[in-house]
Design a protein that fits this description.
This protein is α/β, with parallel strands linked by helices. It has six helices and nine strands. The model has no long low-confidence stretch (mean pLDDT about 95). The chain binds S-adenosyl-L-homocysteine. The site of S-adenosyl-L-homocysteine has 25 residues, from strand 2 and helix 4.
């Protein structure tokens, strides 16, 4: 996975590569898919949701430029894998999940694997989590129709927002960096995420 899927496609940050090597991805997928855990694809995790393809996790993490001690917010906990990668890099992580079963399952799994410091909040995270702001990095791991201004507002000066933006079926991974009240935007990769459902996302029931 590390050489064929990540290095070969341009992931260079050695700290990200070693986090992806060390965090046991097979613990984050349902037992029936365990053998496919390191394959080059997303995997169903229940409730119609997926754990992202390894390359996309690595690309988002690299773009977020996590330093130890950074406060990071993830929106879309899913299995908890992306949150564990951020914590492994030394971030103080808050992650939000609107599906109560996924939130509870991820929380339990993260504690069992030694990532009990991650705060899992079972709520619509499309508007971020103002109580924990400002963040050095915000990662949205579900597809948004537009960049919610409220997420940009919750970034620290110098902060990075990584978010897939587009239609329900095709998005571009965008990196938005905050410099004072100015933003710089960089398009990273084409991608396909499940929808961000909620106040600042898509309405419930979209497909
Ligand atoms: N990052 C996850 C995969 C994300 S899948 C991992 O590492 O496994 C996207 C997740 O976003 C789904 O679990 C979905 O329920 C959740 N989601 C969608 N809209 C949301 C919202 N408004 N707030 C919080 N979570 C949301």
């Amino acid at each position: 996975m590390i050489d064929r899927q990540l290095r070969r496609r341009g992931i260079q940050d050695e700290k990200v590569l070693s986090a992806m090597f060390e965090v046991p991805r097979h613990e984050f997928v349902p037992a029936v898919y365990r053998e496919a855990a390191y394959d080059d694809c997303p995997i169903a995790i229940g409730e119609g949701q997926t754990i992202s393809q390894p390359y996309i996790v690595a690309a988002m993490t690299e773009a977020a430029r996590i330093e130890p001690g950074d406060k990071a917010l993830e929106i879309g906990t899913g299995s908890g894998y992306q949150a564990a990668i951020l914590a492994h890099l030394g971030a103080r992580v808050i992650t939000m999940e609107r599906n109560p079963w996924l939130a509870a399952t991820a929380r339990e799994r993260l504690v069992r694997l030694g990532y009990g410091g991650i705060q899992v909040i079972a709520e619509d995270g499309s508007g971020g989590y103002a109580a924990g702001a400002p963040y050095a990095a915000i990662l949205v791991t579900a597809a948004a129709p537009k960049v919610p201004q409220v997420l940009f507002d919750q970034l620290d000066d110098g902060g990075r927002l990584v978010i897939p933006v587009g239609t329900l079926h095709q998005q571009v991974l965008e990196l938005i960096s905050k410099h004072g009240d100015k933003a710089s935007v960089c398009d990273l990769d084409p991608c396909q995420f499940v929808p961000l459902i909620g106040k600042e996302g898509w309405p419930e029931g979209v497909r």
